[in-house]
Protein: TlpA family protein disulfide reductase
Organism: Caldiarchaeum subterraneum
Amino acid sequence: MSEMPSKKVKKKRNLSTYLAVLPAALLVVFIVYLVATPPSQSISTIATTGQTNTVKTGDIAAPFSLDLIDETGLKNEKVTFRPDSGQIYFIDFIHEWCVHCRNMAPIVERLHQTYAEKGVVFITVAGGYNTDAQKTAQFIKNYRVTWPVGFDPQLEIFRQYGVRGTPTYVIVNRNGIITAKLEGEQPYEALARELDRLLG
């Protein structure tokens, strides 16, 4: 006649079963979390300056002047931004190696085609971190950038505007006030909406 298993043996079996199932259950929970969690916005921008200064909407835009660069390289001219000029400005901060800047280049070109004729002034500030003027000139050529580009080799203007990563878009109204500062890849409609709001 066989004996009934003791309570201790039953507890050990229950514990063994629990420990065997626990890792699989945790894995399932983790997979569900990954699927259910939306991707972070930071995926669409690349950190470049480690900047902690905060420049936000409502701030007065700071004037700047940078060396002009085009598809042939640095020129003996300046790109100057004057917030008191009474014009609407679209300023984008990029690096030539930034994949998100490359993704956005056709969208910015489309914005330029639509809004330059409405009086919006476009300026690109190209950073010099981990790159040089020659590579930046190649970016300008490859992506058909036809508006003024200023080369910021030491990221001075990046820091002045609190730019933490690229691309970053700054829109300035006719009174020199920053009305939008957008980081990362943006849909055409979001950028166009900000410009339409200023054009009235």
Q: What stands out?
A: Residues 17 and 129 are 56 Å apart (CA to CA). The two ends are 94 Å apart (CA to CA).
